[in-house]
Amino acid sequence: MNGGGLGPRIGRADFDAIADWVKPGATVLDLGCGDGTLLRHLRETRAVRGYGIEIEDDKVIACLKNGVNVIQGDLDRGLAGFDSGSFDAVILSLTLQAVRQTEDLVLEMLRVGREGIVTFPNFGYWRHRLQVLAGRMPVSGELPYSWYDTPNVHLCTIQDFDDFCARHSIRVLERLVFCEGRRVDWLSNLRGSLAVYRFERTAT
């Protein structure tokens, strides 16, 4: 399965963080790019050159209307069509939780790109925890789907992703956590609802 920018971008805080991290004129690959809004934003603010990958027909059409170069494809089939080191940055924005081959895809991001950027809803957010304690699956601004129609298959917490990076020799270069568009700087795994990571593969 390939998600396409699932859930809202609260206050566009992740847009601003990603734009700050991407160098002007960089080459970018946006995985699960949705309607191409992020790539358009990066093109307008950072003059990036790049492509999006999206599986849903209507979103591919929306990308074309946004003037975004898009390839229709399923992220769970991997990125074998791209050479190693093809891009300065590979982005997976609000799609990490919707892919089935999560581990393989993150490692592929670091094969085809010099850096990876991911954003995801934090399942450890205190409101999500309360809903689980109340015996229900969480529903929130970042997780807007009910249990029976959600495209999300691999929800994780900030701590989970930190552990994943450590196990796979991935160096976290920067991490920002937000709640309702505001930055969270302490107890982030409890108080933050949206995480944004920039990372690279540790040299061997």
Short description:
The protein is α/β, with parallel strands linked by helices and 204 residues long. The protein is 30% helix and 25% strand. Strand 2 (49-54), helix 3 (57-65) and strand 3 (70-72) form a beta-alpha-beta unit.
Structure characterization notes:
This protein has 204 residues and is of the alpha/beta class. The chain has one domain: Rossmann fold (3-Layer(aba) Sandwich), CATH 3.40.50.150. Helices cover 30% and strands 25% of the residues. The protein has 7 helices and 8 strands. The protein has an 8-stranded mixed beta sheet with strand order 3-2-1-4-5-8-6-7, with helices on both faces. Strand 2, helix 3 and strand 3 form a beta-alpha-beta unit. The longest helix is centred in the middle third of the chain and has 11 residues.
Q: Provide the domain count.
A: 1
β-strand percent reads 15-25%
Which value, in Å, is the CA radius of gyration?
A: 16 Å
CATH class: Alpha Beta
* CATH fold group: Rossmann fold
Tell me roughly what share of residues is in helical segments. 25-40%
Oligomer: single chain
Question: How are the elements arranged and paired?
Answer:
Elements (H helix, E strand, L loop, with lengths): L12 H9 L5 E5 L5 H10 L2 E6 L2 H9 L4 E3 L14 E7 L8 H11 E9 L4 H8 L24 H10 L2 E10 L2 E2 L4 H4 L2 E8 L3
